[in-house]
């Protein structure tokens, strides 16, 4: 592809054309190009007229009315009304159709979180209810297809976390299933790692737990050394099942010394020593103190 001719293919900008685009037989009376019958004076007069229009000259009143009409056609959004209204007490039911918009806003996001924290079971169900074309929940449908966008948003991720914490697990399967095959990617994201930890903490469905742990274990050594992924591994070591802790420690075995000297992974090894079984802790210490001269500082610390 000749990039000099086509520019950005998404927008068609920067395309070059042979000759002057206003000249030629398609524009016989053009002020540009050869064969134009206009004199220089006529050209200047026409250009002057164009400038008057551009500056608002003859069309000033029309332009003012048009802008006014355009403003009338775009009333303030519900989010704008919510942020500017200091007296009205909004309820979750009133933001139906605007959940994603609210989730991506600092104040709108906090409103949803607070309402989910204090709402009754019926209110939560209603807030996350209806719209799935077959009468499921409103927030479900509004967030459906926007989950990853919200997870990666500095405000939206808090709404997803609060949904996982506060809404019955059966109502948020569509959220959790979005993370399948994305666990490692999200675990290495500054906001995604928080969401994955909430899933591990609040979602007790065996299938969900198995999928999450399988994906974590496949890349546990990489996650342990990642600036965000290490928090996910630490979470499992501290709050997970004994067999999950053992599986992680087994994967790390053989790399304990290397991990202990790495900025983020060292925190993971510390959690292994805190929450592993007596046998697992002893195995870690044995590997750390080893017999090589390189490990002499560790031998002194662990003696």
UniProtKB/TrEMBL annotation:
The keyword Repeat applies. GO terms for molecular function: mRNA binding. GO terms for biological process: regulation of translation. Pfam families: NABP, PUF. InterPro entries: ARM-like, ARM-type_fold, NABP, PUM-HD, Pumilio_RNA-bd_rpt. Pumilio repeats lie at residues 94-129, 142-177, 178-214, 215-250, 251-286. This is PUM-HD domain-containing protein. It comes from Pisum sativum. The lineage of its organism: Eukaryota, Viridiplantae, Streptophyta, Embryophyta, Tracheophyta.
């Amino acid at each position: 592809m000749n990039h000099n001719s086509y520019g950005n293919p998404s927008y068609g900008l920067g395309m070059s054309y042979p000759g002057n685009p206003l000249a030629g037989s398609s524009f016989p009376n053009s002020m540009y190009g050869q064969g134009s019958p206009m004199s220089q004076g006529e050209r200047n007069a026409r250009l002057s007229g164009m400038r008057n229009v551009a500056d608002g000259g003859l069309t000033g009143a029309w332009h003012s009315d048009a802008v006014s009409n355009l403003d009338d056609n775009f009333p303030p959004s519900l989010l704008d009304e919510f942020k500017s209204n200091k007296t009205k007490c909004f309820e979750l039911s009133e933001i139906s159709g605007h959940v994603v918009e609210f989730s991506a806003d600092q104040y709108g996001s906090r409103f949803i979180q607070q309402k989910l924290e204090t709402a009754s079971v019926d209110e939560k169900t209603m807030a996350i209810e209806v719209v799935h074309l077959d009468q499921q929940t409103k927030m479900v449908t509004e967030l459906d297809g926007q989950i990853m966008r919200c997870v990666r948003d500095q405000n939206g991720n808090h709404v997803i976390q609060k949904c996982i914490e506060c809404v019955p697990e059966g109502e948020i399967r569509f959220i959790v299933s979005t993370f399948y095959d994305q666990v490692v990617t999200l675990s290495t994201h500054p906001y995604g790692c928080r969401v994955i930890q909430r899933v591990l903490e609040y979602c007790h469905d065996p299938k969900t737990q198995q999928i999450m742990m399988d994906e974590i274990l496949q890349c546990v050594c990489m996650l342990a050394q990642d600036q965000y992924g290490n928090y996910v591994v630490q979470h499992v070591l501290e709050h997970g099942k004994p067999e999950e802790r053992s599986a992680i420690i087994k994967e790390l075995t053989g790399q304990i010394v290397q991990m202990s000297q790495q900025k983020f992974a060292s925190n993971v090894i510390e959690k292994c020593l805190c929450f592993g079984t007596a046998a697992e802790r002893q195995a870690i210490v044995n590997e750390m103190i080893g017999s090589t001269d390189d490990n002499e500082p560790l031998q002194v610390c662990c003696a």
